[in-house]
């Protein structure tokens, strides 16, 4: 068991959304979404708040049930793969009455769990805080514990719901690097929802834009990793996606022309 | 071991009671205060010592404490069980909560005539009064505690595969515990109030019996021993409740917890 923790196989799940839709009462939040994510791919979903990107992620996590269409993971229905999918929320959602280590162990068998939980904590650089209460940690440390809690289950699909949204700029960059390095090491499929276009371009193989419940942009990011925020190619891509998100009319045709090309 | 300033700070809360006792002793000695109304503290201490020597005091305190704890055990566990039930299951809530909320508005002491008719004046009447009094604070706070468990944490735990008893043990019960302990503290206060009333109405033993008996013989010093005993036992119950909170809620910075 320990061996495949240290030397993980390529374990990413392929994600296939087929005509996925979600309505809350009269309001259509997601409308007929078709999407294929390759095993091991890192996809970022950007969009304005209320565009349905978080709902899309919650559907992938099985926290909401679709009103139309379905989600298939490696060809199987979501319910059959529930144990392979883990989600990191915007807030760390640690149990305040459990120590850091016990939080990471949540849902594991107690015996093998402690060893694996310690390994996962070491992986996010918090091995020395194992016996602290969550209340004593900073916001960034709490999210690292939440990441360890997700990793300890060896997810084949990791869903990230703006997990860095509430962190300060420096901690964000640190966390982005950490997420990128564990993703490269463990080869899971990752879907990140964010409102930060720079974060999406820094981390993802592919950036999707969701607008009014539909995917309106699907932009591959062909930059070498690790990515330097300062490079011209990075800035150009970030600018292009950002102007598309902001729906600047002057550049709209420009972008569509490039997409068509 | 402790520094002198810590010692002094520990003494400050006791300055007021000590001043009252000293003033009271002076007032009694100088004859301002008739011993028929209020005997001097020294006489009260002597009475307490005599009662202790004869074994009466220990016997009565033990009997009263036994009654209080038995009532708490019955009413408290029923309140906890029903609170968990209505807090957890929607059907139980619809079925029971309205009824219980109605009954809650009846003061337990208003039931005394009925209780005497049902149980007579023996032990079960006292237990019933205490049990019904402590039931509601624990029931209400347990129900409220379960209802107010952070839904985000429950959602997180479910997405990590926890359901049924593990979900209950890891998330719902610990989340409700602060509220349940508040209920326990209220109950411990009510427990003594109800027991005093029950023992004053009729009893052949216990602190209430001791004081009512002393009243008939105009032994104000013994009456005062009883009153002070209730104060002491009430304070003791509160200390125990606080210790429980400090232990079970040590993860919460508000309870100054140190890591386990």
Describe this structure in words.
The complex is a heterodimer of chains A (261) and B (260). Chain A has 261 residues and is an alpha/beta fold. Chain A has one domain (2-95, 156-260): P-loop containing nucleotide triphosphate hydrolases (Rossmann fold, 3-Layer(aba) Sandwich). Chain A has nine helices and ten strands. Chain A has helices at 2-6, 53-60, 100-104, 110-123, 139-151, 169-186, 197-203, 232-245, 249-260; strands at 15-24, 27-37, 42-46, 68-73, 76-77, 85-88, 157-161, 189-193, 206-211, 214-220. In chain A, the strands form two sheets. Chain A has a six-stranded mixed β-sheet, with helices on both faces. A four-stranded antiparallel β-sheet of chain A has the order 2-1-4-5, covered by helices on one side. The model of chain A is unreliable at 1-8 (pLDDT under 50). By secondary structure, chain B is mainly α. Chain B has one domain (43-48, 60-255): MetI-like fold, CATH 1.10.3720.10. Chain B has ten helices and no strands. Chain B has helices at residues 4-29, 41-54, 56-88, 90-104, 112-119, 123-147, 151-159, 164-201, 207-216, 220-248. Chain B is flat. The model of chain B has no long low-confidence stretch (mean pLDDT 88).
Structure keywords:
heterodimer; A: 261 residues; alpha/beta; Rossmann fold; 6-stranded mixed beta sheet; 4-stranded antiparallel beta sheet; B: 260 residues; mainly alpha; MetI-like fold; 10 helices; 80% helix; flat
CA(first)-CA(last) distance of chain B: 23 Å
Number of strands of chain B: 0
What is the oligomer described by this structure? heterodimer
Instruction: Count structural domains of chain B.
Output: 1
- Average pLDDT rating of chain B: 88
- Taking the alpha carbons of the first and last residues of chain A, their distance comes to 48 Å
The CATH superfamily title of chain B: MetI-like
Order of helices and strands of chain B: HHHHHHHHHH
What's the CATH topology name of chain A?
Rossmann fold
Helix content of chain A: 25-40%
Q: What's the number of domains of chain A?
A: 1
CATH topology of chain B: MetI-like fold
If classified by CATH, what would the architecture of chain A be? 3-Layer(aba) Sandwich
Structural class of chain B: mainly alpha
